[in-house]
Amino acid sequence: MQGLWSCQEDKDSLIDNEYIRERREFFAVLTGIVFIFLAYILIYALNDWSWTNTSASGFCEKVQDGWIREPANTVSNLAFVFVGLYILWLAQYDPTDGHPSLSNRSWFLIMYAISCIAVGVGSFAMHGFNTAWGGWLDLTGMMMYITMPIFYNFSRFFRWDEKQFCIYYLGTNLVLSLLEWQYSIGLIVWGVSIGIWLAQETAIKYQNQPILIFLVPTVILLLLYLGVEKDSTPGDFVSDNFPAILIWAILAYFLYSIDEIKLERTHSPYFWTGFGAYLIATMIWIPSQDGGWLCDPDTFLQGHALWHLLGAVAMWSFYKYFRTEVDHA
User: Fold this and answer.
1) What share of the chain is helix, strand, coil (3-state, %, to 5)?
2) Structural domain spans, the chain
């Protein structure tokens, strides 16, 4: 009888191990997230159960006492974490064969999910704790996400393997994170990177039209600029963003000059859903700040929290969009 019980225990252990192994990416990253949040709590406890040297984020919500200072703006960041974890959960159903991409169980997929989670974990710290290091984590996560499609696209254009991609992507983001701490470059990197990504996506379909590759990101970012900067003009956009515009122009010629891009992606519905979600989020970003017409400090229904939720929708949509890729190489 004891032998039968021992065999049953071994069988249960095997089932548990197999269950975890089949979902190893999910459980590994989930463990990391748990440790990060435990670290947040530990830092708070070691600081005499308080946060010091704080400064409100400027996104309207009334600051509360306690561990979480902006409840709605903080909790809404869990949407980013959920998207990343759900992508990793679904990885168990993805194939492991074929050329590594976001459509199979690869480091490309893992890094995309981690970049989503990094946004949530970082922004949670910024809105939750109102500290300088929380703000740094926030911008670090944002840069990790917005540079992910750029490096993924370059990996498709130049046939990088997973190791090369991880080295270039993580190495660049390490440098960007250090520069953000010293020089606060995060929002600049965000805007420039959106233009680079749009240029790449345009080149996939219209590689032989460098002027179009340049105009698509420039015009879209111009319209976003005019939408969020009150009383601004196209001339203001050019003067404020001339280095970025120059980068997009050089990139357009570069993408036109490289070997033929033999990728095909289906834009409808996922790309346009993600683009629309981000567009709406951007339109409410300024009005949901202090003094904006969407600002009501005393309500849990915060405009910036909606920005987070729409951002998570965009992340999920772009993940689905990248998985429509057909490689004709």
Assistant:
1) 70, 0, 25
2) 14-44+69-187+271-327
